[in-house]
Amino acid sequence: MLVNKAGQSMDEVVTAIARVSHIVSEISLASLEQSSGVTQIGQAINQLDQTTQQNSALVEESAAAAQCLEYQAQQLVEVVSIFKLANEQGRLTPVVTRYPSQSPKPLFLTVRPF
């Protein structure tokens, strides 16, 4: 009887050890999967950070371009403000004046109505 109880106890211990071993294997597998998931999340966060930095740089470039365009528009308004409509149809005739001894580039631009 005592031998039988000892054998039965040994079988229960072996079964319990097998269950613990199986549980430890599942925990190990879950840990590997979790580690892989955390690594993927880290990579995604790095990509988001890079994209955010690129977007920030593009916003800065766009703002600089907008300021440049605003400045150019102001200059254009100043340059064009010298023109005045002379007739009722609103048409202007540009007349280019050149110095005879100089290059063919226009030096003066005057506007006359048709």
Short synopsis of the structure:
The protein has 114 residues and is mainly α. It contains one helix and two strands.
Based on CA atoms alone, the radius of gyration comes out at 42 Å
As residue ranges, the low-confidence spans are 95-100, 105-109
Query: Mean pLDDT across all residues, rounded?
Result: 81
Major beta sheet, strand line-up: 1-2
Which structural class should the secondary elements be placed in?
mainly alpha
Largest sheet: 2 strands, antiparallel
Q: Give the overall silhouette.
A: rod-shaped
* Number of separate strands: 2
Taking the alpha carbons of the first and last residues, their distance comes to 129 Å
* Series of H and E elements: HEE
Portion of residues in beta strands equals 5-15%
